[in-house]
Fold this sequence. Notes:
six-stranded mixed sheet, five-stranded mixed sheet
Amino acid sequence: xxxxxxxxxxxxxxxxxxxxxxxxxxxxxxxxxxxxxxxxxxxxxxxxxxxxxxxxxxxxxxxxxxxxxxxxxxxxxxxxxxxxxxxxxxxxxxxxxxxxxxxxxxxxxxxxxxxxxxxxxxxxxxxxxxxxxxxxxxxxxxxxxxxxxxxxxxxxxxxxxxxxxxxxxxxxxxxxxxxxxxxxxxxxxxxxxxxxxxxxxxxxxxxxxxxxxxxxxxxxxxxxxxxxxxxxxxxxxxxxxxxxxxxxxxxxxxxxxxxxxxxxxxxxxxxxxxxxxxxxxxxxxxxxxxxxxxxxxxxxxxxxxxxxxxxxxxxxxxxxxxxxxxxxxxxxxxxxxxxxxxxxxxxxxxxxxx
Length: 354
């Protein structure tokens, strides 16, 4: 199943049942008076966060959801039966907007959290409500109100503590494989990651955090080039960004400092809040060098970028330096307070892969 993080659906709540015009007719009880009952309530449409789902793929084919209308009222002051509500499961982390007005309706970040997206119509009043000393045989009733109708835009934002970003082919998917049980696609060409991935890093008993991997960014991504900014929303809930830098760029004559600045510029162009998030540099592919070239590159990055944050040297391929990064990230998350994983359930392993 392909990873799907956007969907559009239409929901229609049920109309309320009409009120009844009726009069009591029994032997030996002349002029029994009005006894029309009220109509039943129409069914509402609810979204519920289901931790068992991790994509919006179910909405590729089922896009229209309609609840039943309430039953009409009856004589003898009998209220019509209310219709059943419709409950639609969505992944935890789903943002719900009105597709026509772009109004934010809700953000389902906790397991089993519910959101009413279309309220059912209220039942109408029967003629029993209109009797009075001057109107003893009312023939008025009130029809049920219409249920709400909406077009919804659903957007999935992964719940992750740490986000991986960088240019294509910097080893983000290999890094995710090294730190978790996730198995994203890995190959020796750019853009092997076409969909976000999610993994769980376990440090020890009761100590873990989640990592999100998104497709690589390229220059001009904020203007629509490549795939990256389409998935940058998945980093919006993270508390820490690990910026992977390809040490092998030196062997190909590229400038790693310029590559870091390219990604930083795209983050700033996408959203200032995301650009201001804590970001650590992780110099990857140190196994390509037999000497201290990777250490020299890390020091160059510090000086030319005037970098004040942490810089790590790792090899995701061999696992060298990986444990130090994970331990430092765990310490940072514990010291920084509430994390996405504490607000809602942790989504295990992968968020979707071909």
